[in-house]
Structure formats: C-alpha cells, structure tokens
Amino acid sequence: MKLNPSLVKFCLLLGSVPAWLPAQAPDAAVLRISADQVAAHVSPMLYGLMTEEINYSYDGGLYAELIRNRNFKEDAKQPVHWSLVQENGGSGSMSLDPGQPFNDAIPTSLKLTIAQAAGAQRVGVANDGFWGIPVKPDTRYRASFYARASAGFKGQLTVAIAGASGGAIHATARVGRITGQWRRYEVSLTTGNVAPSADNRLVISTGSPGTIWFGLVSLFPRTWHDRPNGNRQDIMQLLADMKPAFLRFPGGNYLEGYTLATRFDWKKTIGDILRRPGHLNDSWRYWSSDGMGLLEFLEWCEDLHMEPVLAVYAGFGLRGGVRIKPGADLQPYVDEALEEIEYITGGPATTWGARRASDGHPAPFPLQYVEIGNEDNFDREPGSYDGRFAQFFDAIKAKYPRLKVVATTGVSSRVPDVMDEHYYRRSEDEMASHAHDYDARSRSGPKVFVGEWATRVGEPTPNMSAALGDAAWMTGMERNSDLVIMSCYAPLFVNVNEGGMQWRTDLIGYDALTSYGSPAYYAQRMFSLHHGDVVVPVAAQGIPTREWQPPPGRAGAPGVQPARPAPQQVPTLFFDATRDSGTGTIYLKLVNRAGAPQPLRMEIVGVTVEPKGRAIAMSASSPDDTNSITEPRKIVPVTSDVDGLGASFTRTLPSYSITVLEVRGK
Ligand code: AHR
Predict the structure, then answer these.
(1) Are 487 and 497 in contact (CB under 8 A)?
(2) Protein residue closest via CA to atom 6 of ligand 1
(3) Average pLDDT, the chain
(4) Under the phi-then-psi rule, with left for phi > 0, alpha for psi from -120 to 50, and beta for the rest, what region is 464?
(5) Is pLDDT of 526 > 50?
(6) What is the pLDDT of residue 1?
(7) Do you find a cis peptide bond into 252, omega within 30 degrees of 0?
(8) Given the DSSP bridges, would you call strands 200-206 and 508-510 parallel, antiparallel or unpaired?
(9) What are phi and psi of 34, to 5 degrees?
(10) 211 in ligand 1 pocket by Cβ < 6 Å?
(11) 24 alpha carbon to ligand 1 midpoint, in Å?
(12) CB count, 10 Å around CB of 550?
C-alpha cells in the first residue's frame, strides 16, 4: 500500500486541519471530516441526463410507438418491416405506392391488393415492430391508421395483435366500412390473461377482394402520465427514480447529422405526427420517425421535473464538409435557434409561443442553458467555431440576456458562461486516474458542464468495474461542484436486441418487453439521490493505491511506435462528503475498488454525531459482474440501518463496493 502524494496534497489543501496526521494501523485508511465547514456549494443541477437518438433510444426505446416504419419512409423502394399476410388460400400483393401519396410529408402509401379472399381466406399487411410487439396480460393498446379503398370494396378490416409465426391472436377488433377517401380509423385492442411475449406483430387484414391504401399506421400501449404520443412507462420509471435535474437534448451527433438535410431540423419535428416527415439519422445509421420531436422532449422534461438544456444546431455537419461560414450564410441558422428558444419560452403572443400553444402546450417551459452545437473540436478549420459561436452568442444574449450560453470547445472571441467537456474512458483505472482532475482547476474561467462521460467497460451496458470507475469520477465532480455545475452520462439508452446497439456501454438496456438499469445506473442513482447542498472538507491518510499502466498514445508517423507512458499509482479508495445544511445529515460517498475489504476509520469533527445512521451500499463479487435483460437486478444498492456512529468510528467497506453513509450531525 502506498500513500498517493497528490492526494495528500489535495487533502491538505481542502482540509482546514493541515496539522492532523494521527498514528494509524498500516492498513487502515482514515478520513477526517470537518463537518462544520464548507469547501464549496453543491450545484442543484449537478446530476442530469443526456439523450439523443442512438441505439434505438426513442424509436424502439423510450418513445412508446410500437409500429416500425409507420409512414413507410424508411426505405424508398420497399415497405421494410411490413409483410404480406395470406391465410387459408387467400392471395394478394403489397407494395409502396408513390402514385397515391398520403400527404406532403409522406409522399407514398402502402398498397394492399387482395386478389383472392372468400370464406375463411384472409389477406392483409403485418408489421413486426421494433424486434417484436410486446404483449402483456390484461393490457389495452390503441391502434390507429389512415386508409382508403378502391371503388366497390365492401369488406371489413380486422386489426389484431398476433403471434409472429401465426396461430395465437392476443387481441383483435373490427373496423367498419373503408371509404374511397383518406380517413383515420382507431380501435382499442385489449389482451386477456396471456403470457408476456414479444414475438408478435400487428396484422390488418380482410376477407374481401379489392385494393386498400394505408397511410400512417400506429400502435400505442398506455404511456407515462397517459400522454398522447408519449413515452414507455417502465423506462420513464427508471429515469424518474434517478431524480435527474435536467435533460440535455437532442444530441450529441444526432443534433448535427452528416449533412444539412440530416441534422435535427426542429421545425420538422413539431405538430401532428401525420405531418412529420422523419429523417435519416445518418450519425447512427437508421431512420428516425421524429415522433420524439421538440415538444415531446420538453414534455418529457416536464413529466420528470427536469429543466431542458437545449443544444442548437450550429452550422457544422459531421461529414461532407458542412461548415457554414459565419456572417450572412450562418444567419438563417442563428434565426432558427432564436425561434426554437421562442417556441420553448415564448408567451402565446409570440409567433413561436403561439405555435407551441396550438401544438397543445400553452404554458412556456423553463430554460436557462443553451448549448451551441456539439463537440466542435471536431471542426478542425481554425477560427470556424470561434466565429460561429460568437454569432450565436451575440444574438442569444441580445434577445435573451438571462440565458447562459454553453460552448462545446475552447473559444477566444467571447467568454462562454459554461464549457461542455466530454470524457469517455477506456478502463476503470483510467477513469479513476482522472477523479482528482478538477481539484486543481482554476475557478476563474467559465463553469464546467460534463455533458458526456462514461467508463466504457461492458456491453451493451456497463458492468461493476465501470460503475466503480464512474463512482470514483463522481466523487471528483461532486467535490468540485462549485465548478462542475452539471453532469450527464452518455449514452443513456440501448435496445439490447441484435442490431440495436451502435455505441457500446450504455446506461439503461431494454427490449420490447422489459428494461433494466446497469450497475453504473444504480451508482448514479445513489449519487443523485443522496447528497447535501454543501461540500465538506475531508482530510485523508493511508489511501491505498494500485499500479496502472496507461495505454499507449495514438500512433504517430508510419512506422513510429506510440510512446508507452509511465505506469501510475491510482487510488483504490475514493470519497467525498456533503452536508445538508437544513437537516444536518452528512453524506459520505465511499468507493472501494479493491478486491479486498477496506477498513476505514472516520473522524468527524465540528458536529455532534448521532449513533444511528443509514448505509446505501452496492457491491459485487467480481468487477465483471453485471445486470442484463435476463438478470436485471443482480447488482443493486441495499439500504440498511447502521448503529455505533460517533465522532470516531471504523467501518469496513466490502470489496468492489460503492457506499453512501448517511450520518446525522447536530
Ligand atoms: O455519446 C455518443 C457520442 O459521443 C455523441 O453523440 C457524441 O457527442 C460523442 O462523440
């Protein structure tokens, strides 16, 4: 066990008791907590969420729509995810029909020609959903579609949720006469006492010959707060349980896209879903329905009491040289951002506030932070971001002086209110090695928003090793939260089905039926739910470390081997302390990354400590242990009452563990 010199320096800096170096057993770490002192204030916005359409986050994820390719635009040549149903000798054909466009936003339709159908024969179309249609017992679904029929078609349509391989019909309803004009039809489908399953499809079929054209087809289960066009209940519950303070949206790379046409063009994402064209999400290589549009993001915020942190498109695309010159060329995008802010915050007397009201939300939303672009360090043209940022910054400050403007990389032309920094680390040790980075950061510059971060170990979701790296990192952000005012992990979601993941190591996993939180999810929940409003100084001694070999840097010129950095000693024990100045409760975050239990003596000065407290602890028998869709709660925090606390007490932290110790002080 070695004493980490930089930690000792840090502890002496933070602690107001620098002379304190008591004798101790060689293997006992000691923390001295000056509970009556304030090292910093904890930002009320410290723990939030980051989201974008990646890994089927909305379509096939949070957004509760169950029909995939509902407006037939995913592929211009064929109706992907739709198939022809021909039963009991019925026959027909199915194709896209741009000759019968549905509307301007959906310039095609799905044509079903029923050549032979009589008696028990049936012909129809079926949609296979996002890796199946979830069926649960005693559950109601709302199916809707637009249709028109050829002259003389007299039949009825049956709408059913049915087993994918034929056989079981889980719920069914009939639709009366289909006319020659486009019209909307809606039915309720209710399951009985059926076993949960996902291997199902939605079938719309008939027993009569003729031709039917379909427009937008939709199927929703009940949503969170019963919002129309709303979100999946189970995933919303996982998010609500984190008590996030804000939502950073809509990206991420999804904001930018490869080209102008494939950016997040917010005006095309509002209003009736009927009029939303959707777009190719080329950043992550799949179609986006834009059912999760600007208003849905905002309502998601409202439902979970989160504040929106809006990223606006800033004239930079990820491929194809999209880099709009500051000045007249960029002005339309600046105007678009101002209009977007007006849509969010404007009263009903403003143009875009009125539009939001007519879209169904008369009340404005709160907004404090607007981010200009995303990761503009990838724009290598000197001065490009500086110029673009300045134009957005000036326009936003002129119209909305109280808004805080976030930069995505360094600029010299203006002083941003906040800098967004992203940290993806390849191992637990690497993440832990950075947990003290902010301790020495100057406080004279802009505040910091850690807008994307993760220990990328484990897929599709992080394992316990990643959670330990994350927890070590979070002690650093929390301790420095006078500077780090906001943080959010990324990516948030992954559909765990084959083909669902574009980016490995994602916080929350799901399939059509169920969802789960990774150990890293629970670690965040522990941090977000249990902290005070002030940071309390902690002096430490005997902090154990282990050797870590950082990976080689990037390859240089051809044939030149990248330099191998020197090995580092990285602590295996991390900690921070906050106090609720109202109740007096002290929250000690304790992270033991070691494979052996860690005895820890706590000395609490400045307050009288009550003997009884509470521990919320999560541990694993191996750092490789994880949660999964089949074992969703293998690793979860456990809450227990503790006794024997006082001015000085010893606790042993389990191996591979994260603990919040709640100590009541007066
Ligand atoms: O979180 C995944 C991606 O990582 C984000 O879209 C991008 O901002 C970052 O490079």
Answers:
(1) no
(2) 252
(3) 94
(4) alpha
(5) yes
(6) 36
(7) yes
(8) unpaired
(9) -90, 85
(10) no
(11) 46
(12) 16
The region that residue 125 occupies, defined by phi over 0 for left and psi between -120 and 50 for alpha, beta otherwise, is beta
% of the chain at pLDDT higher than 90: 92
* Token pair recorded at residue 524: 């965040």
Q: What is the pLDDT of residue 555?
A: 64
Question: What mean pLDDT do residues 456-475 have?
Answer: 98
Question: What are the pLDDT digits (tens) for 108-121?
Answer: 999 999 999 999 99
pLDDT band at 122, cuts 50/70/90? very high
Could you give phi then psi for residue 471, rounded to 5 degrees? -65, -40
Phi-psi region of 215 (alpha: psi -120 to 50; beta: other; left: phi over 0): beta
Higher pLDDT among residues 427 and 552, named by residue? 427
Residue 3 has pLDDT above 60, yes or no: no
Say how many Å lie between the CA of residue 468 and the centre of ligand 1: 22
Does ligand 1 come within 6 angstroms of the Cβ of 375? yes
Mean pLDDT (whole number) for 225-237: 98
CA 437, CA 417: separation in Å to the nearest integer? 20
CA-nearest of 269, 228, 255, 363 to 315 is 255
Tokens at 549, concatenated: 């070999």
State the pTM of this model: 0.95
Residue length of the chain: 666
Q: Is the peptide bond before 460 cis (omega within 30 degrees of 0)?
A: yes
| Nearest Cα residue to 269 out of 246, 251, 250, 247 | 250
Q: What is the mean pLDDT of residues 489-506?
A: 98
In the β-sheet with 29-34, what is the strand arrangement from edge to edge?
538-541, 29-34, 598-605, 648-653
Cα torsion angle, 268, 273, 274, 280, sign: positive
Q: Which of 262, 282, 374 to mutate to test the pocket of ligand 1 (most atoms within 8 A of CB)?
A: 374
d(CA 421, CA 419): 6
CA distances from 455 to 283, 377, 437, 487 (A): 22, 21, 15, 14
For residue range 539-549, what is the model confidence (pLDDT) as tens digits?
999 999 999 99
